[in-house]
Design goal:
This protein has 2 domains: 2-116, no CATH class; 126-232, Nucleotidyltransferase, domain 5, CATH 3.30.420. By secondary structure, it is of the alpha/beta class. Helix content is 30%, strand content 16%. The strands form 2 sheets. It has a 5-stranded mixed sheet with strand order 6-5-4-7-8. It has a 3-stranded antiparallel sheet with strand order 1-2-3, with no helix packed on it. The two termini are 26 Å apart. The structure holds zinc ion. Zinc ion binds at residues 28, 30-31, 33, 49, 51-52, 54.
């Protein structure tokens, strides 16, 4: 019910997609120009780049590219597929959205393919941060305590990276946060030449292009070298 209240029709869904894709105003998907003319009555491509000149919509260059399905359908399908506790079947999409089985399969396939699309490197600048997730040892019942030490004992370490250009994020659990594991993730994910921003810590000391922020000294943002986005993620 909530999701149909949030996206009662295609127009509200379009507003939502536009706001999230282009928080600073429509941007040409082809040349990146912000010199864009909005022509709300010109559907299905209500934007024109004054520099290219190219016509486009909020779907252009996304997983919704070349699809005639309404944006409300896309928004709700994305919601169902990303919140389902188990893998959401295309039969569920078919029933819940009242679309044909063929359309439901197409939606599920496109969305899952996009999630699987990896391999493209983060060209940066890249922000990274690590966190230990799990209950505090001292709050656990005696039988559950690991009695193996202090601090991060019993927690799972997770390292995350965020590409400042594309806003893509990736996170992975690691055995322990050491120079080797962090270096391994950086080696796998971002471009080796990408600048890396991280908070203070000896872990990152050996990494090239590294700029750090000293949280312990009350310094949270220094120019571009902040990790706020990564921390909230
Ligand atoms: Zn353009």
């Amino acid at each position: 019910m909530d999701i149909t209240r949030i996206f009662p029709d295609d127009a509200t869904a379009e507003e939502w997609f536009v706001k999230h894709r282009w928080p600073a105003g429509a941007c040409c998907p082809d040349c990146g120009s912000l010199n864009v003319q909005e022509r709300p009555t010109r559907k299905p491509q209500p934007y024109r780049c004054r520099d290219c000149p190219k016509d486009f919509s909020v779907k252009t260059g996304t997983l919704m590219h070349n699809s005639k399905l309404g944006l409300q359908t896309w928004a709700i399908a994305l919601y169902l597929l990303s919140t389902g506790l188990k893998e959401t079947s295309s039969m569920k999409i078919h029933r819940d959205l009242g679309v044909t089985r063929k359309t439901a399969w197409f939606l599920a396939h496109r969305i899952r393919e996009t999630w699987r699309a990896r391999g493209a490197r983060f060209s940066g600048p890249v922000a990274m941060d690590e966190v230990c997730i799990g209950g505090k040892e001292r709050n656990k019942r005696e039988s559950k305590k690991l009695k193996a030490g202090r601090g991060s004992v019993g927690k799972t370490a997770v390292v995350g990276v965020e590409d400042r250009n594309s806003n893509r994020t990736a996170a992975t659990p690691v055995e322990s946060v050491t120079k080797v594991t962090v270096g391994g993730i950086l080696g796998e994910t971002p471009d080796p030449d990408a600048p890396v921003y991280a908070d203070e810590g000896s872990l990152y000391g050996s990494l090239a292009h590294h700029e750090s922020v000293k949280h312990s000294a009350g310094e949270y943002v220094r120019g571009k070298a902040h990790v706020n986005g990564m921390e909230s993620f």
